[in-house]
Each structure stands twice: as structure tokens, then as C-alpha cells.
Design goal:
Layout: H1 4-34, H2 45-75
Helix pairs in contact: 1-2
Length: 90
């Protein structure tokens, strides 16, 4: 059944998660590149690896929740109405 309030809540959550996954993705990209360019940076490689590994768990969980909200947003137009009015208007 369609629920407009749930749809709007899922849309807000999805937008917030898009921003969070962009931030997490940029940080993971930077830490991933820094592992190959260690002669130019003076950071501890174990710290970079630790940050990258811990952030990957957060990235995967954000992506999973974002996929669920996106699936609901995708299926919302195909869900039956709450009223049960399935007659065809002429």
C-alpha cells in the first residue's frame, strides 16, 4: 500500500545518505591513492590503512541502506493505492 509520509521520509533519508556516501567515498579515494604515493606523503601507512578499512564498513552500510530506500522510491509508483480504488476511469 502506498504511504506518502513513508515515501517522503525515505526520500529525505536517501538524499542524506547520498551526501554521506559522497563524503565517505572521497575520503576512501584519498586514502586509497595515498597508499601508492607514500614517497610523497609523510603519513603513517598503517594509520592510512586503518582509516580506509574502518571507513569501508561505514561505506558499505550506508550503501546498503541507500539501496533499500532507493528500491522503495523506485517501487512506490507501482504499489496499490491505500483506498483500494482499482477501477479504471473512462
Amino acid at each position: 500500500m502506498k504511504n506518502a509520509r513513508l515515501y517522503l521520509t525515505a526520500k529525505k533519508i536517501h538524499r542524506l545518505l547520498v551526501l554521506l556516501i559522497l563524503i565517505a567515498g572521497i575520503i576512501m579515494m584519498v586514502t586509497g591513492i595515498m597508499m601508492y604515493l607514500m614517497q610523497y606523503f609523510f603519513f603513517d601507512p598503517f594509520l592510512i590503512r586503518y582509516i580506509h578499512n574502518k571507513l569501508s564498513i561505514l561505506f558499505a552500510s550506508i550503501l546498503g541502506i541507500m539501496m533499500l530506500t532507493g528500491l522503495y522510491l523506485f517501487l512506490f509508483p507501482y504499489l496499490p493505492d491505500k483506498r483500494g480504488d482499482n477501477t479504471i476511469k473512462q
